[in-house]
Write a structure and sequence with these properties.
heterodimer; A: 153 residues; mainly alpha; two-stranded antiparallel sheet; 3 strands; 50% helix; B: 110 residues; alpha+beta; 3-stranded antiparallel beta sheet; 5 helices
Chain lengths: 153, 110
Amino acid sequence: MKKAVLSLELATKMFKGNDPELRAFAVENYPDLGKDIKDRINDFSDILSLNNMSQLDFENRCENKCPHEIGALKEELIVSAYNEGVKPDYSDGTIKYCPIFNHSGGFSFYVLDGWNSVSGVGSRRDFCGPNALANLRDAVTKFLPEYKESRTL
Amino acid sequence: MSKVIERINNWSDVLTENNITESQFQERVKGLQPDEIGYIKEKLIVAAYNEGKLPDWNDDTTKVYPIFKMSSSGGGFSFDGHGTWDPRVRLSVPASFFTAQMHSKTCMML
């Protein structure tokens, strides 16, 4: 019954707040909130869930898009999920990370790049937050095909 | 034929270089989110400057992409410099072009 009245978005806000009771209430309703985001994401359906998007919603968003544009959308949703809805603040002095891929001899993760106030890939593709580095590595491991779909011809 | 940097002065020139009319572009982006329209514009801009050439990742030439300042405290969104690794195939411009443009227009970074 409680789950019916507490949305995931609100529960996430509660969980990230400073009130221990609200945090506990949020976790009671959404036990996954207490887990590391890397443990909550295993495949693209988890990405959609964390973005509060159904498969049908996603398919509607894909209408009239080329395959690589669908890949770009997937990439943005992946980053948004790992960032847990937090948008990068380029004035906060923290480093935001993006993956760089090797395009010759196949497509593979090459290295990561990090900046605090600039971006080469845009705000929707930068990983932010205290676990950004580990999240990025997890994302390129689990979602390399989606990155390839987004970033190759 | 004039150089591509001389032919391109505004968005309509980018459409012309891509053999696309404004109405075709509007049809293409109908129903898309603003950032998705921006992404398509960015690809068309790069395609225009690349003059239809696709990057060959095995040719040992450097491909470059722009890096932007994102911080509002730094004066808002503005060009900051260029990276020489290319993370996004469709958004890369040959370094030779970029160097020429940087020198001829602003010499901001080089």
